[in-house]
Amino acid sequence: MPGSVPVTEKGRSTRARIVQVAAELVAERGAAAMSLDEVGARAHASRSQLYHYFEDRDDLIRAVVDATTTVVLAAQDEFLGDLDSWAGINRWFAALEAIVRERDARGGCPIGSLVGQLAERDPVARAALAEGFDRWERNLRDGLERMRTAGYLAPDANPSTLATATMALVQGGLLLAQVRRDPGQLGIALDAARSLLHTASR
To answer: HSE of 81 in the Cβ direction (CA atoms, 13 Å)?
Structure first.
C-alpha cells in the first residue's frame, strides 16, 4: 500500500526529516548501502512511521530524488527565472561556476550522482531523475523561447534543442570538474555552451 501523504504540519515535518536523513546517507554511502533501519535510527523514526510515509525503500529513494532536485533548483532560484537575456544566461553560468569553486569542485551534480546509482536499477527512479533534469532544463528552454520571440534569437532557432545541448555541456563540465578537481573544467564547458547559444542569435 502506498505511503501516506501527511496532512498535518507534524506529519510533514516527520516525513521531511526522514527524507533528509535518507538523502544524507545516500550522499555519504550511496543508494545501495542505505538501509531503512539506519534511516529510522538517525531520523528517530520507528519502522511503522517509515512505512506510514513510504511504501518501501524504493519509494523513499524516489522521495530523495525529488528532494534532491528541489534543493539543486533552489540553489539557482534567483537566476533560473531570468534566462531570457544574454545577461541573465551569463549570470546563471557565473553562479554555477561560483558554486563549484566554493565546493572545491567536489560532489559534482547531486542529481547526476544519483543517475549512476539508480537509473539502471529502478525504472521509476530513472523516470523521476529524468523529470528532475527536465524541471531544470525547462527554465532555460522557456527563457530561450522568450528570447526568440523578442528577436534575440533567429526565427529558426530551436530552444528545445539548444537547452538540451546546453544542459549536456553543463553536466559534462560538472563531471569533469569533479573528477579532475578543477573548477576550470566547468568554465570550459560553459564557454562552449555560450558559443553554441550565440550561433543561434540574429
So the answer is: 4
